[in-house]
Design a protein that fits this description.
Jelly Rolls, 14% helix, binds fe (ii) ion, binds succinic acid, 15 strands, alpha+beta, globular
Length: 218
């Protein structure tokens, strides 16, 4: 059954999985217990492969700061979008994908009905107030049978989950610190995006939202 935005904030049962599509589910607070372990690991990743503003193939500078960890990292430049085994800033491999993230993503995917998910790519998106991500599909991966696992940290955001055409209606899904969203199967290629981040300050991360998107890219 489809859920409305109100259901996502049901005060009676805030930690129940919330199905937002046939094969798309929000696991509220699922990453909370790992946050203390995740933050230092993330800091290390960003120290090794700094956040940067990539350019779209059309030559626009992306507002969201990006980096990656894992065997493959998603990059964008004037030549297009693709996965690369090396960080183009350093020509070195991306930092390793930490166990704490691999395990978390594997468990979240299982709960969503995707067993045996082993990510080889983790995109780190860093949003500041006002930053948004316009509607797009994730289609640079090799195997669309593999789901996408997305972990939200810091400031809350409104995630837009659309349909299979860019102009299809979108659902607004509130994603808060520690929430995990998994989508795959028939929902795998849905358009999605993020509304402009509202100003605010998160107790652990300050004026920031960090989203970690784990995929099996290769
Ligand atoms: C993405 O679609 O790559 C990121 C989504 C998000 O920031 O929640
Ligand atoms: Fe995406």
């Amino acid at each position: 059954m489809m859920q409305t935005e109100l259901d996502l904030f049901n005060p009676h049962d805030p930690l129940q999985p919330q199905w937002v599509g046939t094969q798309a589910v929000v696991l509220p607070g699922f990453a909370l217990q790992q946050v203390q372990a995740l933050l230092p690991v993330l800091r290390q990743i960003i120290a090794q492969a700094p956040l940067r503003h990539m350019f779209t193939p059309g030559g626009l500078k992306m507002a969201v700061g990006l980096t990656n960890c894992g065997a493959l990292g998603w990059v964008s430049d004037r030549h297009g979008y693709r996965y690369s085994a090396v960080d183009p800033l350093s020509n070195q491999p991306w930092p390793a994908l930490p166990e704490v993230l691999l395990g978390l993503a594997n468990r979240a995917a299982s709960l969503a009905g995707f067993s045996d998910f082993h990510a080889d790519a983790c995109l780190v998106n860093c949003y500041r107030p006002g930053n948004r991500l316009s509607l797009h599909q994730d289609r640079d991966e090799r195997d669309f049978d593999q789901p996408i696992v997305s972990i939200s940290l810091g400031l809350p955001a409104v995630f837009l989950l659309g349909g299979h055409a860019r102009n299809a209606p979108t659902q607004r899904i509130g994603l808060r610190h520690g929430d995990v969203l998994v989508w795959g199967g028939e929902d795998r290629l849905r358009f999605h995006g993020v509304l402009p981040l509202k100003p605010g300050s998160h107790p652990l991360l300050g004026e920031l939202r960090i989203n970690l998107t784990l995929r099996k890219a290769g």
